[in-house]
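Residues determine shape. Next comes a sample protein:
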Amino acid sequence: MASNTISLSIITALNFLCIAFAFDPRPLQDFCVADLTSPVRFNGLPCKDPSTVKADDFFFSGLHLPGNTSNRIGAAVTSVNVASVPGLNTLGLSMFRVDLALNGFFPPHYHPRATEVITVLEGYLEAGFVDSSYNRTQYKKFLKKGDVFVVPVGLLHYVRNVGSTNTVVLAVFNSQNIGIVTATQGIFGAKPPINAEFMANAYMVDENTIQRLQKAFS
């Protein structure tokens, strides 16, 4: 009985340890304002000398301004991350304003290092993600102003404007460097290209189709 209790305690501790390492590490000081000019490179960004830190290092203005959606997907992102707010360094947080024109969208993609919380500020949005189970279940919602939707870390998801006006979304992430991998861009836009014959077999289409997609996403 005692050995079972010890084993259970060890398993529980390891589970919490895995959770702890699944996201950005906790800071070891009040703040570590990023020194964006430093040549030092490691897993994160080096800190400024605290004596040079100012309130502006923790400040951003302009999230009320719409982004330029005149592009192929009709979408724009305004970033509030460590690059625009150096004071976010080591705090495990970033946020984005997302503008979607009529019929605008973000294609299926995933963030390898962050869970996403989506809040609709204006408009009407479809958001969905697909789990990693054998059934590949899709969880989808239609969101109006004030609605919130959560996308778990690492899962393939998409958003698209399904309303009659522009849509504005606030997206918050629990990482300062979320990463983004677009399914089509990652596969068909790889450099150098993945072997077309192999890709044709994998996706059950002909090589010409694969080559056309590789050219489009290159």
